[in-house]
């Protein structure tokens, strides 16, 4: 019988888990520790996966989502047993609807105790069943294989969260000798111009006189932008996008019509144009971001073509033709196959773009329009901007000029509040060199204000912009439109600049666009984080979108 070498450190099951995660590209873990996960956190650090302490588990999940957007890899949420995982439910649900390959690793009471013990014991898998693609409990003999399977599921189309339970006794146990499970080498089949799908689509495009493209997250995340631009230019097709795909075609381009889905004023213009199209190409389009007005937006099925990596499971529209393919590869082949055509000879796309510009023209005085204009000027082409849910998000998503994809991050499917700050933290952790701005309403910041401590402790150079109107403005607008009295939407006057200073950052209160510009420019020159609180009247949102 062989005995372990006392000179060699013992490999724990937690080490096997951590090394498997690292070999599959995971570099960041976010969460809050508890007694059930201390061994796991130790193993993560030893394997080269940094553990970042958050102040709330839902925020930690959204931080992981922000990091994943930048790294293009799955990232990790770590929670302790019971209340830790329950706290994370909102963030896990957000990952599900935002198509984030989030790995959720929770501590769990040891199996030998679980049947008798009740303190903090809940059925983790049952609680998360509607939100995750799968849930597994890690065992010593299959730890590496289970983690690898979880990653494969999380990253399979459509991406989404997968949950793993690990008990402290198993985490600390000696790992059985086993072959490591490394990620496979992925070899994708090229799409050639002569492929049948390309010929069929090229024929459809050649017959169209008014083609139009609706682009979604899958196309933006998959790098389809350059091929989409070549195709759109060749056939004169205007391009509109979901909010998360903004910038897939640079929005300074004459064919780019910006984001759709939340602004009734913008959607009125865009849906009219979609209705006039005789061919609608839905490219990597996920209607989970859209609203009721976008049901059947493509019109008659025979004029709608859906291009994506998986078959959709929704009933928002009914495409007459569905092509299951990588959008970037298919568009590249199509761009080389189609003959140039003018498209839309009546100038309708240009008229729509002008109408949108007029709708969101900045009025006189200080308000959210002017602040967004200044942010557009100062941020620069390479910046990442995150935005929270609320009235300011709808307006910013219309007025923000995205010049590159995946540069405006938000919760667009789930629309949870207090997403902007944790998204910004995750993005900055993943790419410290890029400037990151988090744009929030006062209600959203107050919901998760403790994460300012996370920004401080991680030493992040973030710029946080607070649109302070002392209200839950979007809900107030909905109450008013329904003829109801205002109730439960008024916020008190918080001195956010003082709060920022209390958390160790720089804080400023501004009331003019010039002061806002000065503070934004100064924030780019200083270390640590800057919070700029911009005060305006909530009535500035009346009729704005």
UniProtKB/TrEMBL annotation:
Every Thiamine pyrophosphate enzyme TPP-binding domain range: 388-533
Record carries keyword Transferase: yes
A Gene Ontology term for the protein's cellular component: acetolactate synthase complex
Enzyme class: transferase
Gene3D superfamilies the record matches: 3.40.50.970, TPP-binding domain
SUPFAM superfamilies associated with the record: DHS-like NAD/FAD-binding domain, Thiamin diphosphate-binding fold (THDP-binding)
Pfam family, one: TPP_enzyme_N
Keyword match Iron-sulfur: no
Domain Thiamine pyrophosphate enzyme N-terminal TPP-binding: 12-127
Keywords: Thiamine pyrophosphate, Transferase
InterPro entries xrefs: DHS-like_NAD/FAD-binding_dom (IPR029035), THDP-binding (IPR029061), Thiamin_PyroP_enz_cen_dom (IPR012000), Thiamin_PyroP_enz_TPP-bd_dom (IPR012001), TPP-bd_CS (IPR000399), TPP_enz (IPR045229), TPP_enzyme_TPP-bd (IPR011766)
Thiamine pyrophosphate enzyme central domain segment(s): 201-334
GO BP annotations, alphabetical order: isoleucine biosynthetic process; L-valine biosynthetic process
A GO term for molecular function: acetolactate synthase activity
EC number: 2.2.1.6
PROSITE patterns hit by this protein: TPP_ENZYMES (PS00187)
Domain of life: Bacteria
PANTHER family assigned: ACETOLACTATE SYNTHASE (PTHR18968:SF129), THIAMINE PYROPHOSPHATE ENZYMES (PTHR18968)
Family: Belongs to the TPP enzyme family.
Protein name, entry field: Acetolactate synthase
Gene: alsS
């Amino acid at each position: 019988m062989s005995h372990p070498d006392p000179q060699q450190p013992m490999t724990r099951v937690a080490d096997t888990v951590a090394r498997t995660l690292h070999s599959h590209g995971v570099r960041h873990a976010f969460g809050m520790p508890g007694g059930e996960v201390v061994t796991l956190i130790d193993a993560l650090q030893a394997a080269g996966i940094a553990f970042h302490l958050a102040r709330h588990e839902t925020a930690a999940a959204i931080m992981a989502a922000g990091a994943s957007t930048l790294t293009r890899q799955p990232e990790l949420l770590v929670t302790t047993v019971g209340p830790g995982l329950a706290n994370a439910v909102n963030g896990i649900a957000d990952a599900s609807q935002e198509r984030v390959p989030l790995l959720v690793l929770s501590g769990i009471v040891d199996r030998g105790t679980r049947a008798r013990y009740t303190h903090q014991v809940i059925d983790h898998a049952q609680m998360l069943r509607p939100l995750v693609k799968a849930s597994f409990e890690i065992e010593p003999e299959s730890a590496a294989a289970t983690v690898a399977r979880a990653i494969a599921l999380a990253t399979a189309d459509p991406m989404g969260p997968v949950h793993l339970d690990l008990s402290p006794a198993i985490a600390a146990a000696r790992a059985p000798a086993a072959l490591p499970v490394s990620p496979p080498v992925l070899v994708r089949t090229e799409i050639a111009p002569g492929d049948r799908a390309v010929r069929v689509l090229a024929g459809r495009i050649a017959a169209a006189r008014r083609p139009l493209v609706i682009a979604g997250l899958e196309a933006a995340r998959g790098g389809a932008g350059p091929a989409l631009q070549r195709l759109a230019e060749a056939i004169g097709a205007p391009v509109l996008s979901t909010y998360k795909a903004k910038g897939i075609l640079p929005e300074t381009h004459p064919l780019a019509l910006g984001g759709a889905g939340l602004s009734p004023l913008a959607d009125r213009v865009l849906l009219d144009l979609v209705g006039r199209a005789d061919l609608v190409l839905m490219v990597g389009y996920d209607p989970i971001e859209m609203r009721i007005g976008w049901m059947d937006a493509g019109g008659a099925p025979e004029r709608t073509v859906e291009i994506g990596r998986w078959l959709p499971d929704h009933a928002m529209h009914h495409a007459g033709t569905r092509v299951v393919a990588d959008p970037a590869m298919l568009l590249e082949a199509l761009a080389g196959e189609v003959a140039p055509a003018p498209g839309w000879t009546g100038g309708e796309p240009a008229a729509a773009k002008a109408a949108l510009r007029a709708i969101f023209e900045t009025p006189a005085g200080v308000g959210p329009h002017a602040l967004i204009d200044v942010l557009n000027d100062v941020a620069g082409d390479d910046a990442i901007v995150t935005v929270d849910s609320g009235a300011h998000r709808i307006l910013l998503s219309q007025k923000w000029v995205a010049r590159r994809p995946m540069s405006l991050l938000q919760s667009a499917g789930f629309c949870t509040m207090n997403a902007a700050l944790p998204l910004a933290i995750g993005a900055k952790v993943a790419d410290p060199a890029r400037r990151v701005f988090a744009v929030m309403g006062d209600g959203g910041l107050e919901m998760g204000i403790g994460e300012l401590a996370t920004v401080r402790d991680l030493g992040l150079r973030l710029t946080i912009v607070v649109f302070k109107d002392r209200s839950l403005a979007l809900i107030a607008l909905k109450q008013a439109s329904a003829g109801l009295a205002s109730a439960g939407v008024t916020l008190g006057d918080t001195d956010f600049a003082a709060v920022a200073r209390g958390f160790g950052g720089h804080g400023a209160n501004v009331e003019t666009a010039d002061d806002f510009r000065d503070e934004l420019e100064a924030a780019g020159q200083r270390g640590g984080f800057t919070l700029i609180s911009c005060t305006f009247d909530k009535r500035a949102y009346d009729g704005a979108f």
